[in-house]
Amino acid sequence: MECDTMREDYDLIVIGGGPGGYLAAITAAKEGLSVLLFEGGRIGGTCLNVGCIPTKYLLDKAAAMEKVRSLVDQKIFRECGLFSFRKIQEGRNEVVHKLVSGVEYLLEANKVRVVHAYAALAGPGEVECDGIRYRGKDILIATGSVPSFIPIEGAEHAMTSTQVLELEKVPGRLAVIGGGVIGMELASAYCSLGSEVTVLEVLPELFPAEDRKAVAYMARALKKRGIHIFCGMKVQKVEKSKTGLRVCYEGAQSGVAEADVVLMATGRKPNLNGIDTEAAGISLTPRGEIQVDAYMETSVPHIYAIGDAVGGYQLAHAAYAEGEAAVRNIMGRSEAVDLSIMPRCIYTMPAFAAVGISAVKAEEMGIAAVTGEFAYSANGMALAEGADGLVRVVMDKERETTLGVHIVGENAPEMIAFASAAVRDKMTLEEWERMVVAHPSLSEMIKEAALDCFGKSVHKAV
C-alpha cells in the first residue's frame, strides 16, 4: 500500500511494526483511537521475521536431534538418521509467514491503518512518508534496533544473525564473535546441526549479570556438547584463508579460530533511521537511546518511544509492556511502566531462564538472602524425559519472601512464567508450603527449591 496523496489526521501514529509497535497500535485501536501504523519492512519486525521466532524454530529442530542422539546412546533408537536442512529452512519460513499473516489480520480486524513504507518525524505531531504529511495527536516511536558491529579489520567478512539464519547449508565450522543471547543461541543450534562451533567473548565470563552457579552449569553443559567457549578474548581481525576464514583473537590465550562462517553477534543499537532527534528536540541517553520517562514519553510532549529504541531490556515482552504503558498514558491514565519483574530467557541447550534478583544482588542491596536448590536429577518428570538441569530460588531470609528464581535446563522458559508470578507477588515460605503443584511436572522443582531455602525440601536429600 502506497502513502495517500491526501493528508489525514489520526489520534495515534505508530512508526514501526515490530512487537511493541503492532501491539500498541492494536491496544490503542481497541480503546477507540484512530491509529496509523508505518512499517517499511515486514510486519512483526526483527522478532517475528529474523529474530526470536525463526531462531526458536531452528533451536526446536536442533533439540529434537539432541533428543534422538540421547536415545541412540541409550540404545532405545538404533541410529540418528538423516535430516534435511533445506526442509528445516522451508519450515522456518512457513512459520514466520503464518505469524506475520496473523498479525496483519489482527491489525486489519482492529481497523488499524497500515502503510507499508518508511516514515520520518516531520515536526510536532507530524509524520512524513513519500512527501506526504500525516498529523497525529500522539506519536509513538517503535523503530527497534539493528546489529552493532565492532570496528575490526575484516568485519565485512562476518555475517549478521539474519544472514546466518538464512544459510542454505550447515557450515562445517562456525565462529561466533560475542557470547550474548543471540550468539549463544545460534551457537547452540548449529552445534546440534553438526557445526564445529567456537565462541569468542570479550567479557571474563558469560552473562555476568545472572546467577553465577546457574550460568556455570549452562556453560559446562554447552562445552560438553562440543562448543568451544573462550571468554576474556578480544577479537583483532577476521581474514580470508585458503580454507575459509580466520578469526584472530588475543587474551589469556591468544589464538586463531578457523571457520567457514563467522557470525558477528556483538549486540544491537537503536534504529533511529527517519528519527531526527536533534531537529525534533528529543533527548538521548549517553548510549544514544531515546530517553523516556516512566510513562514512555520523550522530552517532547505527545511523542512516546518504546522497545529497543529506548534501550534497557531488548526483549519483545519488554516492548509489549512498554507499548501497553504508552497507550494507557495516551489515554490519560498516568500509569508508570513496571519492568521490575522481567523474565529473561536464553534458549540454548540447556536453556536458561531467570526472573528477579540473584543472592549476590540481594546482598548488594542490603538484603540478607538465602538460596535453595533442586536438581533435575531428583525430579520424576525430568528423569522420565531424560532432562538435566538445576533450579535455584533466592528468598529474603528475614521476611521469608521470594526474590528471584534461576533455572537452567529443559523447559526453563516455560516454567519461568510460574516463577515470575511468585517473584511479583513476593510469595512467602508459608504460601510455598501450601501450594499444590501438579505431579509429575518439572514445575515441582521450583517449589522444592523454594522450600530448600529454609531446609524444608521434601524430595531433596540432606
Summarize the structure.
With 462 residues, this protein is of the alpha/beta class. It has helices spanning 19-30, 45-50, 52-73, 85-109, 161-165, 181-193, 212-224, 277-280, 316-330, 359-364, 380-385, 412-424, 429-434, 444-452, and strands at 9-15, 35-38, 113-115, 120-123, 126-129, 132-141, 145-147, 173-177, 196-201, 228-231, 234-241, 244-250, 255-259, 261-264, 268-270, 303-305, 344-346, 352-356, 369-375, 389-396, 402-409. Strands 1, 2, 3, 4, 5, 6 and 16 form a seven-stranded mixed beta sheet that branches. A five-stranded antiparallel beta sheet has the order 17-18-21-20-19, sandwiched between helices. It has a four-stranded parallel beta sheet with strand order 10-9-8-14, covered by helices on one side.
Written account of the structure:
It is a single chain. The chain has 462 residues and is α/β, with parallel strands linked by helices. The protein folds into 3 domains: 9-57 and 86-147 and 269-330, FAD/NAD(P)-binding domain (3-Layer(bba) Sandwich), CATH 3.50.50; 155-266, FAD/NAD(P)-binding domain (3-Layer(bba) Sandwich); 350-452, FAD/NAD-linked reductase, C-terminal dimerisation domain (Enolase-like, domain 1, 2-Layer Sandwich), CATH 3.30.390.30. The chain has 14 helices and 21 strands. The strands form 5 sheets. Strands 1, 2, 3, 4, 5, 6 and 16 form a 7-stranded mixed β-sheet that branches. It has a 5-stranded antiparallel β-sheet with strand order 17-18-21-20-19, sandwiched between helices. A hairpin with a 5-residue loop joins strand 17 and strand 18. Helix 1 (19-30) runs parallel beside helix 9 (316-330). The model has no long low-confidence stretch (mean pLDDT 96).
